[in-house]
């Protein structure tokens, strides 16, 4: 069994939750989102995040706006929609329950 594949699948499973969490306080453009994820040691490449952002937008969880940049092309800033905020709140509850259950199981003495 390939441990790297398993680790990648675990990261992929929480990536949507993490992206929505990054955007809960303020809008951000893709590079900011990537930097936040990388700073948290959640390694993500651009080829992964762009399709996910598009899917989240198409699902009505995110919206975006264009803003001119003084250092290059315009930037697309993403933010949570009202539906996205509700979805994130539900994910927070689910995450707490799941992490509590996993911690309980993995920290049991043999």
Give the integer mean of the pLDDT values.
91
Radius of gyration: 16 Å
Percent in helix:
55-70%
Uncertain residue ranges:
none
Q: So what's the overall shape?
A: globular
Say how many strands there are: 3
CATH topology: Arc Repressor Mutant, subunit A
CATH superfamily: Winged helix-like DNA-binding domain superfamily/Winged helix DNA-binding domain
| Classification by helices and strands | alpha+beta
CATH class value: Mainly Alpha
* N-to-C span: 24 Å
Main sheet: which strands, in order across?
1-3-2
Q: Give the oligomeric state.
A: single chain
Number of domains: 1
Order of helices and strands: HEHHEEH
The CATH architecture assignment turns out to be: Orthogonal Bundle
Largest sheet: 3 strands, antiparallel
Q: Please give the count of helices.
A: 4
What percentage of amino acids are in beta strands? 15-25%
Protein name: PadR family transcriptional regulator
Domain Transcription regulator PadR N-terminal: 19-89
InterPro entries: Metal_resp_DNA-bind_regulator, Tscrpt_reg_PadR_N, WH-like_DNA-bd_sf, WH_DNA-bd_sf
Walk me through the structure.
- With about 110 residues, the chain is of the alpha+beta class.
- The protein has one domain (about 10-105): Arc Repressor Mutant, subunit A (Orthogonal Bundle).
- The chain is about 60% helix and about 15% strand.
- The protein contains 4 helices and 3 strands.
- A 3-stranded antiparallel sheet has the order 1-3-2.
- The mean pLDDT is about 90.
- InterPro entries: Metal_resp_DNA-bind_regulator, Tscrpt_reg_PadR_N, WH-like_DNA-bd_sf, WH_DNA-bd_sf.
